[in-house]
Amino acid sequence: MSALAFGLFYLVMFLVASVFSALGQGGGVLYTPVQLFFGFDFHTAATTSLLLIMVMSLSATMIFHKAAMVDWPLAIALESSTTTGAFLGGLYSGHFSGRSLTYLFSGVIAVAAFFMVKRFNMQTRCSDRPGGFYRWRRRVGPETYCVNLALALPISFIAGGISGLIGVSGGILKVPMLVLLFGVPMNIAVGSSAFMVGLTATGGFAGNLAAGQFDWRIALVLVPAIFLGAQIGSRTSIKVDKAKMKIFFGYFLAVLAVFLAIRTVLQ
Description:
two-stranded antiparallel ribbon, 10 helices, 74% helix, 4% strand
């Protein structure tokens, strides 16, 4: 790769970290395809993507924690399931071809694009009736909401497995899941997701690392750009209109999904 091409690659990865950290997401839906575009093979790109998500998560969570936007108990409970799935997905990703994983990746991006573009206004209120041990009442600041763990834990495990396979953190699905299924306020969903994606990525990265699919050189070079980009993006997130930003990137992801599918077919 020429110096000019690498400079462009570095800049694009920095911008991805800045934008997706503002949405409480890891950026894996772009880290991997950007690396593919610049000539990296899928398995190496996916593993590098997971490490970069871990760095982005650490950086962004530092900011969201100060702003009291993280539901720590909920995030840790859900990630106990998601991280397990991510480890298994990463461990067995080598059994699938790069082509099949790219198709799966395109499908995940398409689903994520739908949830980002579609406007939902669902809020789940806690009733006073007993709901069983699995119905968890949460309170963060002035906000109160209930989470159905009997639904949340299995969904989290499946999302983690897919995340480990294709090198994403699942954040692009976590925010809609938290908001739509469990009525978590958007600001708390974004902050909690920023922390959760790091744990999911850790599980997936460990699985891929155990499978011997990693290039330390390119990953270490990219770490400073991702950390700085996440700092900028998460600080911006506290001020910007997230609804408009989600719609814009939803359409962008839809185009990206089509592009990846067509590119794979023509290869």
